[in-house]
Amino acid sequence: MNQKQCLSISAALAAWALTSFATEAQELASSQVAKGRYLTQAGDCMACHTDFDNDGIPYAGGRGLETPFGVIYTPNLTPDDETGLGRWSRDDFYRALNEGIGRSGEHLYPAFPYPYFTHMPREDTDAIYDYLRTLTPVRAEKPENDLPFPLSLRGSILGWKTLFFEDEELRRDPEQSEAWNRGRYLVDGPGHCGACHTGKNFLGADLEEEYLRGGTLEHWFAPNIRGGDNGGISDWSERDIVEFLGAGRAPHTAPMQRMGEVVAISTQNLERSDLSAIATYLKSLDDRPEPEREDIETERLEVGEAIYFDSCAACHDADLTGVPYFFAPLVSSNKVSAEDPTTVIRVILEGARAVATDAAPTPLSMPPFAWKLNDDQIADLVSFLRHRSNRPAGSVSASQVSEIRNYLIEHQGGER
Amino acid sequence: MARQLPGKDVVIIGFGWTGAIMAEQLTDAGLEVLALERGPWRDTPTHFATTFAQDELRFYWRHGMFQEASHDTVTFRNNEEQMALPMRRWGSFLPGNGVGGAGVHWNGQTFRFLPSDFVARSHNEERYGRLPEEMTVQDYGVTYDELEPHFDHFEKICGISGQAGNVNGERVEGGNPFEGMRSEHYPNPPMQMTFSQDRFMASARQLGLDPFPGPSANMSRAYTNPLGMQLAPCTYCGFCEKYGCGNYSKASPQTTIIPALMRRENFVLRTHSEVIAIEKSADGSRATGVRYVDSQGDEYVQPAEIVILAAYPLQNTRLLLLSGIGEPYDPQDGTGVVGKNYCYQVMSSVNVFYDDHYTNEFVGAGALGAVVDNYNGDNFDHSGLGFIGGGYIACWTTNTRPIESHPVPDGVPGWGSEWKQAVRENFLKTTAVGLHGASMAHRSNYLDLDPVYTDRWGRPLLRMTYDFTLNDRLLTAHITPFVEEIARGMGGREVKVNRRRGSYDSKPYQTTHNTGGTIMGESPSDSVTNRYCQSWDLPNLFITGAGLFPQNAGYNPTGTVGALAYWSANAIINTYLARPGPLVQS
Fold this sequence. Notes:
The complex is a heterodimer. In chain A, 43% of the residues lie in helices and 4% in strands. The longest helix of chain A is centred in the N-terminal third of the chain and has 17 residues, at 3-19. Among the domains of chain A are: 29-169, no CATH class; 298-412, Cytochrome c-like domain (Cytochrome Bc1 Complex, Chain D, domain 2), CATH 1.10.760. In chain A, a hairpin with a 2-residue loop joins strand 1 (64-67) and strand 2. In chain A, helix 5 (90-99) crosses helix 7 (122-133) and helix 16 crosses helix 18 (398-412). By secondary structure, chain A is mainly alpha-helical. Chain A starts with a helix and ends with a helix. Chain A is globular. In chain B, a hairpin with a 5-residue loop joins strand 20 and strand 21. The A-B interface holds A 2, 249, 311, 314-315, 323-327, 351, 353, 356, 358-365, 367-369, 372 and B 43-45, 49-52, 222, 224, 227-230, 232-233, 235, 237, 246-248, 255, 259-260, 263, 265. Chain A: Pfam families: Cytochrom_C.
């Protein structure tokens, strides 16, 4: 923490002490605030509650989250009385994280991941609350959500919660190690990894049987992050996972797009022991055996291979083994072999940039190929890559590519 | 009316290699640093992605990354009898523009000058007697041994691929037997040689010479530098010189320093900001900051405690002259120092044509080559030769790019169907061996302000007065036959010798190795800066770059430019900051 931040935090602490009960002021010891700050980072709260596209102030909210049901804007977490958490009590805050109920009793959309935060014990949500109180108050109204009827009625959430939400603190599993328990807590609690990496039902709730087996949202496929046998990261070592989350580089791939944000804002700041704990936990999760390799026409393979050699082999190497830590080895990429090929298609269309971290500041990037390769060519290329993968996956069609291309044209101003 | 801005600890003029090095070192020491770059922002993923970086039309013929001659150019003449005219299209050399400067579009051939190069006057006079009066060759004031740790650091930042020849005084087989002592091996092994280099090395060995792989800022393998910057293995696409590397495989400020530097809170970069003068205090005893113009045409005064002049050598000289700092050099009586000892380099080459062997020179890299140093510097006896210095002989495969390059044998017409046929027959079956020769300073070669031509702000352009000297001519006349001998030993059908004839011509491309103008030295009467690259006139003004070289060595300059920048930064941090003032008493 730099001096400027220290000063603003102590000024805020002083102001708070004047207006609250002595007992609460006592709990705002700097260790409590530091714990809250750490958990706030572990929860990646800043990512959703900052309007990065418009140079928004951290935690002042206003970022639009694209859900399958519409756009939901995030609220202001700074302690502003009118627009932020200024008038919220600790109890209000705990109820929001634990039960998904706002200060005036309204039900919160599960885009706010309380189905995960409910696993956190009261002392942890209190610490987060205490940290957020130390932010400089910023007046920032949140835009109206863009949701269709009846989802626009908050009452509809109650039905959803009745079906899919359980208010439940995570219990320690005495059979497992401390590290495993800590890892599971970070993954399922503040880290809310399942929000992206777990498959959802048609109403956006986690499917228990798809736990961390990969999920699609915002036209990205978040890969399977189970280890054990057959999991998406079964060939990752614990160290690889720690490097991926801590430095933003691993032999297999680098975090990009939303995961890049998670690493930059959240996981690169976590203790190494916590990253190891996450790795221990993920590596313990087995997965189902792979489906049988599907046959693919020789002609498509040959075309895919030729395109690969011309456009991809310079970086990813002629035998697809890539350059570990630099350019993803495609033979073992869980993005390539994912059941849902969205991410690999999308990366080919619009390129990708590995997140820059303090440990790895190089903005390693892959250029876009949407202007260069048509839908058939990309479909053949991806089918070739999937066929050659360590975990062979089925071929993809030109219409799958076309669908993503059209989405990018409509939503991201992509190339035709 | 210029707007006065809040002061900074350091302002850096120009943001190429040395600007980035200085900014990195000085922010690391805790100073608030601002860099001003007159060109645009450039980064690897945005500006040289692999899908369009290899574009000859855009980057070479349309000068995608070079200084815009319509904004700023130099006027040129061979001698004082002539009227200098503006170079309206770059030819002989290609100054860079934008973030990274010419460090983006260089080849990556990264040598250390020889120990004797730093003491060119005293060493040569001791061995061969007094130099002719018109040769204004000088010692640097800093020695190779003093620079060694800084050479070493720059090589680690760049991830140089090479083969050491002398580690801590121990001779290493396969490296350059003439090089100065290095404290450590190169961080990466040499590049993969091709058919042409294999032939060159075999021929050179046959002649009793000592070939070694050229030291290269193109990566022979994946590498992470001390700042955590990642450089990927070179793919030998051959688009280095005149191009940015989209593969993160060539050391440039973008791939080695800038992304790490940009994360630091005490660093700020302003692009599209052209410095028009260095400001001085009323008594002329120190620099107070700089005056610059942004893209809106608005003028600002940026105060700073330390000013670092880190633009291209030609620009550094011009800014000193325009700012009235130091006495301009007068070639008539040899007085004055600013603009003195402008030097270039002198080259010759021999093309080799094969009948039955494909050299496939489209597979290349900026610094993929084999080198012979037996005729460089003072590595051979010059007694009775009438010249000092020398050059290296090398077979580089940097890429025969199809629009730019179509070598044909002697006797082929310069155009038409016969020429086309010869290009078709020879394009994949040819290579070249070149001499890269030193340029020794001469009284009649210098830089000053042009009396006629001005830029868009109405400021005089820089005038270059330059021609090859007797030393240059004797040097190439002596060494080119050895080049030819090696080339003939490479087993081709025929060779074509491209000798150095006539006056220097500013049109055909040769190298961008312009040196001098702001030279370093031992006394204020014969140099612009002291041995720490600190202005003799204004002790809070430091100058970087090849303009510091009192004369040019037979090597590519970037290794020495980098080492001098680290050496100077080290002096600022460890000596100057504690007691700001002259680091050498004059």
